[in-house]
Structure formats: structure tokens, C-alpha cells
Design goal:
The chain is α+β, with helices and mostly antiparallel strands. It is built from 4 helices and 3 strands, in the order αβααββα.
């Protein structure tokens, strides 16, 4: 796995784990961007939207638009990946707690 792939996989895991901590398992792109920033991932809002779309394609989140803002909601499969119960190529597996 290349360094870029490792960073991308970690960003996706941070997003899933952040959603797992949110009330209702959902957050908008701005909140997810702030969560990524807290974990040292300073990426563009467009990159956050791209990750949300990719995660939705994998069935890990659902996405909807509210005005011009994208909102992601964790699915049951996404919870399994966020907690390490299952794995998806392209998302870093969390370390045991």
C-alpha cells in the first residue's frame, strides 16, 4: 500500500469513527472536515465530499443534500467497519482498544 493510499484509508476511518460518535450517527461535511482536521488531516471540503460519496458507494454511509451542504449518515455496515467488526478495502482497520 502506498503512502497516499494509507492516508486516504485513514481519512475514511476517521470519518466513520467520527460519525459513530455523533448523535443519530450523522454529520454534515463541515463537521466531518473539522473532525479530520483534529486528527491531522487538513484536506479540502471537496475531498471530504469525495470521501462521503465513496463511502456511500461502499454502503458505509448514506448521503443527502440540505441546500448546498452534504450530510452523511452511518449505516449498519459502516458501524461494523468503524468498530473493526468487519473490513472494507480502502478503509483502514481500527486498532483494538
Amino acid at each position: 500500500m502506498s503512502f497516499k493510499e494509507l492516508v486516504t484509508a485513514d481519512q475514511r476511518l476517521v470519518m466513520l469513527r467520527s460519525l459513530h460518535e455523533m448523535p443519530g450517527y450523522e454529520a454534515n461535511e463541515s463537521i466531518l472536515d473539522a473532525c479530520l482536521d483534529q486528527y491531522g488531516h487538513k484536506i479540502s471540503r471537496d475531498a471530504v465530499r469525495t470521501h462521503i460519496s465513496w463511502l456511500a458507494e461502499q454502503g458505509l454511509v448514506t448521503q443527502r443534500e440540505l441546500g448546498s451542504t452534504l450530510i452523511a449518515k452511518l449505516t449498519g455496515r459502516g458501524i461494523d467497519v468503524a468498530t473493526g467488526a468487519s473490513t472494507v478495502p480502502g478503509v483502514k482497520k481500527p486498532r483494538p482498544e
